[in-house]
Amino acid sequence: MTLALVLLCIAGLVVLISVGKLNAFAAFLLTAFAAGVLLGMPLAQIPKSVEKGIGDTLGGLVLILCLGAVLGKLLAESGAAQVLAAALMRAFGTRYIQWAMVVTGFVVGIPLYYGVGFVLLVPLIFSIAHRYKLSAIYIGLPMLAALSVTHGFLPPHPSPAALVVQFHANMGLTLLYGLAVAVPTIVVAGPLFARTLKGLAARPLPAFAAAPAPAALAPSTGNSLFTALLPVLLLTLAAGYPFLAGGRLPYQGTVALVGQPSVAMLLAVAYATYSVGLRLGKTMPQLMALYAEAIKDISMILLIIGASGALKQVLTDSGASAEVAALLQHVALPPLLLGWLMAAVLRACVGSATVAGLTTAGLVAPLLLHTPTNPNLMVLAVGAGSLMFSHVNDAGFWMFKEYFNLSVKDTLRSWSVMEALVGLMGLGGVLLLNHLLT
Hints:
Distance between the termini: 36 Å
Largest sheet: none
Protein name: Gluconate:H+ symporter
Number of helices: 20
Number of domains: 1
Structural class: mainly alpha
Shape: globular
Family: Belongs to the GntP permease family.
Low-confidence stretches: none
Mean pLDDT: 82
Number of strands: 0
Order of helices and strands: HHHHHHHHHHHHHHHHHHHH
Radius of gyration: 22 Å
Organism: Hymenobacter bucti
Membrane topology: Multi-pass membrane protein
Keywords: Cell membrane, Membrane, Transmembrane, Transmembrane helix, Transport
């Protein structure tokens, strides 16, 4: 009976978002209260569980997400991301233009949110396609595959960062494992798959072209690259430092502090404020205005993540999560595969990768307490599942269709298949890593 009620609540959440077109934040809150009532919680306890869930979830994420948004805004407004893209194009040349697109999307996608990276890099795709008489799909899809993978697999992006918190995983190890899974996934879903679409005609709309940042005002290539990758470098250093020289190197405590996600992001933003801000002639009031704009950009993401934590807490406090976990232990599927499948089904229903991943987390988290599943790999499994089945209820689907001026059929043939390949390759990589680590 408990499982049926949980499934009813999830179905209600899906209906509210996909059919009722209700904002995911409001849908999560309504579902959390409804779940508390249906699962027999004392009525006075439900608001307390909702508040605790929001607080616990956002407590470890607010700094990471807000600072990440500020860093992305600084890189975008300073022209640093465009500088990186142009430098990579010069380095790779026209013969390896697809690989230049992949590396550009990957480098830019690590610090930027998907939507920002998409809008920033699409004009570059169109200009290159025009200059070299190439299909915009052929050179653009590899870049967007890289953006999608960084969004779904790699912290500090919202969904994987939230999953790290909910599964009590290690941010640095998750990032390292995520990089190992991301590379082959991008190769297959990007350049290799795009080669099958050379004949797919795309007619990008001129209205979507954006004016590049003035070259004289942009930062140098080295400065742009270091600033963009600084959070990743700090997290990677902290993850690998204890293993160097048998853990006998000095300053272990300092490196551990610097490698905390919130500290790494704070240091990166502080450096970016100088390197692509003050150093280039921007005033502090101008930079603080960018800070404010960046926080506004992700305010709804924060609310949705917090509300997803409310539903998770209600399921936990009511005892439903423990009962569902006990039932799922008897399902003839490995936990990693089960987490991937749940996220994939929810993605198909809801459309949002973030919502699918966060909803799955509330149901799968108890399994980690009863099985020897690696929590870092579970983050990646759920992330991979949350990228499956992108279709007409996904905002990314329509962004791709409209920017590239494609029919729905051709968008399904290109974008939707690419996302499915990302999800399947991600699952394969997670299962292979799990085999190697156990």
